[in-house]
Each structure stands twice: as structure tokens, then as C-alpha cells.
Amino acid sequence: MKTDSTVLVYTTSGMSLPHLAIEREVLEKKLFQFNRKILLKCSGGLNTCYFNPVHNLLGCALCQSRTEANIKSRYKFDRVYNIQKKGNNYDNVIIEITSLTELMAYKYKEIEIGRGIGSSLISITRNSKLNIYNYTYFIENSLKQAMQLVDQIEKIVNDNNVSDVILFNGRFFEHFPILSYCLQNKINYYTHEKGANFNKYQLIKNHTVHSISYRKRQIEEVWNNYQGNNNKIADQWFLNKRKGIISTETNFTLGQTKGLLPKGFDKSFHNITIFNSSEDEFKSIKEWDHELFDTQNEIIIKIAKSLKSNKKIRIYLRFHPNLKGIAREQIDEIIKAKLSNVIIISPESKISTYRLMSNSNKILSFGSRTSIEAAYWGTPSIIYGKSFYESLDSLYKPANYTSLIELLENFNLKAKSGIDLLKAALFLQERGNQLEFAEIINKNNVYYKNKRLQKHYPLIIFYFICSLSNLGIWKNNFKEFYNKKLSFKDLLKI
Predict the structure, then answer these.
(1) Are 413 and 395 in contact (CB under 8 A)?
(2) H-only helix segments in 126-253
């Protein structure tokens, strides 16, 4: 590292103790490499963020007090900046947005600030087809706040000759303008995130965890550098996933009945199961853009209509368990399409994902891990659209709709299997660096160098009082997202 290098640390993880501990570990291991250290923290200036989307004032105070105790006061920074609130000079900016597409493409100083806002909005609502007219206050204020953030970053970088930036994740409203500014001005950036399990974290240079190209390289690197029995560990990952005992991620089969198939499941048909997935995480990421379809429902309806005349084919649509409680709109869209050849399996259904997978003649997915699991267990697996696993030869990857239909109508399609499936599984099992100083038991039970991180710090009272001037932001955001007024009971919730 050059001796004249300056790092800008952008901290926004105070509401999450696990991510706060990861950030501390990153700083402990990286800051010494830089000659000068600059800190940019939120003092309630942001009107939304990933961890506190509606600008809950108690949440703001909690975040600020934790950041003060765990970041600002722990490390010696040469300069400390607070994120500025939207200035009056942006009030006269006229913003005309008529669609989510226009929001995503909205630029300020050639930076697509709308993309980060769209990402946050889709994630908050878990709806990739949302009506933006229901969120006009949020969108307009967030765009103007993002302009303020771009201008402030530009000034901080120029005033301090910043060479590197460290930040969380990268895809949300509060991060995307900074990451984009770094890309535009050829400034190194490091994004940090959790790893395969509570004992690991990821620190990624000039990429984010959502990068397909980065994932492709990492799958190979993890495989080539692993010190152990690669095949055994990868095989065990598939076995543990099937048994529901894997500890590296959420168990989405929890609550399903082992061996349960849909009522009337008939093996005399050519049964195709479509495993959909939540679209909110990747909808706003440019590398995931493609022209094959806009939404998964759109292509599912099109497929069903194309295959309707073939009476030997029956289609099962398994909604991802991660969509519990939020998939009603998507399910209703399929129901309204009146697809007689599609059997819908809700996210809450007790039907066994693995039993269904094994008894299907083939599966179609949109990039979920089901794609590699099906292929591993011997079911032909087709992926359509962008995917982390699009480079794997063991999956069928039709380049267009005609090729997709040909694969779905091919009753003799055989499963493919290769070492690439084991490589992907090993990556999912082992990705990330081992935490040395942080110990994460669960989201509320976190230690750093054997000392438990406090949930609350005395400064929370001070920061809450300072945040009261932002009550209007909380009330307006709350009303738009929950379609009701902020009540006294809501005031006491974080």
C-alpha cells in the first residue's frame, strides 16, 4: 500500500450487531494499511437505509449510539464527517418519474442514483412490480438526498485525496451513489458482508456479493485453494441441505412434511416443476439485466400457455418459502391468468421441496440453489435468465424462449452432472474469511474480542432527542409503506 493512501470508511451498520462486528474486524485488519483514515457516518441525515427503511427515530438513535461506541471511538480517524441532510438548494429540482424503469435510470452527475433507490424500494416492499405513484414522497426525497450524498462524497474525496473506500454491501440507496462514484472515478472500494456462516465474513475488492463474474471466479478460487477433502465437503453440503440440517444459511424447508407430494401427483404425466425465487435482491443490479423476460410470472404464464396443448405435460409452480406472507400478489396474478395446466404450491405449503424435485421429470428455476441441487440428485435442471450458476455446464441454459420450450417439451432430456456442481457447493459452504476477533452467536448475541457488544448505550437518549426534528420523515415514510398513520404504539417499536 502506498504511504500517501487515504481510506474513507463509510459506516451504516449500527442497527445490526453482527454486521457491526464484521465491520470492526474489517477495520482492525485494514486500517493500518493506510496513511490517513477518514470516517463518514450517519447522524440521522439519511431519510432511509437498509437497516431502518422508514427512518424509525429509535432505530436512528440506536444506530448512532452503537456506531459511536464501536467505530468512531475505537479507531483513530484523521477526520470525521456526518452525512448531511438534504439541503434547501435541492428543493427546486423538478423530478418527473412515471415508472420503475425511469427511476432506475435516473442520473445525477452521470451516476444512476435512482438504481440504488429502486433497489431499496423493491427490497422494502418485496415487490418488483410496484406502483411508484404510491411512494412519491419516498422517491422524491430519496433522490434529492442521494444528490446531496453524491455532492458530499465528491467534496470529501477531493478534499482528502481519497484513494480507497470501505462500505457495506453496496446495492442500497445509501451505498449505491458512493459505490458508483468510486467506479466512475477509478477509486478502489471494498464491500463487506457476512460469509457462509456466523463464523465467516466477506471483504470484496471492487465488487459486491451480487456480482455474477465475481461469484464465477470465487467458485474456482475456493475450490483450488481449499485445504481439505473438496469432494467430501461438497457432497456433505448437498446431503445436509436435503436433510435440513445445514447450518450455513436459513433452512427454507423447515415446516415441510418429509416425503409429501402434491395431492393427485401422477407420474404418468411428464411433470415439470418451476421453482420461482424472490426477485427483489437482484432486480436493480445492472449485471443481472437481461432481455428474456421482465418478471418471473410473465415467463411462467407464457410457458404455461405454450405447453397447454400438450396434455401429457403437467406444471407445478413451487413458490419459494422465502416469499411467505408477501407472495399473495404474485400468486393472484397466476390465478387470474387461469392456467389449467399449472398447480400452484404456496410458500407456506408443507409439500416437500426435495420429494417434488426428485419426482419431477425436470425442473426450471431462475437462479436459485435449487438448480444445482436438482442436477446433483439426478433431475434435469434448466435455468433461465441471469444466474450465479450460469457458467455451470451441468445445467441447461437456453439462450432464448424457443430453446427453452424445446427443452421443456423434450421427454428424453437427461440430467447432467459434473464436478462444477461440487465446486459451487463448496463455495456455498466455505465462502468468506474466518472471523478472528468477532464471535456471532445470533443477531442479538455478538462478542468482539470476548466482550459482548451492548444492545443499548446511554448515548441512545441523546441521539433520540437530536432525531426528533426528523419525526416528519418517519411519519411520511411510515404512511407510504404501511398505508396508515404512525400511532403511539408504533413510536415505541424499533
Answers:
(1) no
(2) 136-160, 176-184, 212-225, 230-243
Sheet holding 362-365, edge to edge: 342-345, 313-318, 270-275, 362-365, 381-383
3-state secondary structure of 140: helix
CB-CB contact of 457 with 65 (8 Å): yes
The CA-based dihedral angle spanning residues 33, 223, 215, 405, taken in that order and rounded to the nearest 10 degrees: 180
Q: Is 165 helix (H, G, I), strand (E, B) or coil?
A: strand
The CA radius of gyration of the chain, in Å to the nearest whole number, is: 24
Packing angle of the helix pair 212-225, 419-430 (nearest 10 deg): 90
- Amino acid 48 reads T
> Tell me: the pLDDT tens digits for 90-124?
988 889 999 998 999 999 999 999 999 998 888 88
Burial class (CB in 10 A: 0-12, 13-18, 19+), 312: exposed
Closest CA to 380 of 270, 237, 284, 232: 270
112: phi then psi, degrees, rounded to nearest 5: -75, 75
Amino acid sitting at position 316: Y
Strands (E), 35-117: 36-41, 79-82
186's grid cell: 477509478
Which of 75, 65, 2 lies closest to 35 in space, CA to CA?
Answer: 2
Q: What is the DSSP string of 337-402?
A: TT-TTEEEE-TT--S-HHHHHHHSSEEEESS-THHHHHHHTT--EEE-S--TTTT-TTSB--SSHH
What residues does 248 pair with on adjacent strands?
A: none
Q: What whole-number distance in Å separates Cα of residue 283 and Cα of residue 386? A: 11
pLDDT tens-digit series, residues 136-180: 999 999 999 999 999 999 999 999 999 999 999 988 889 999 999
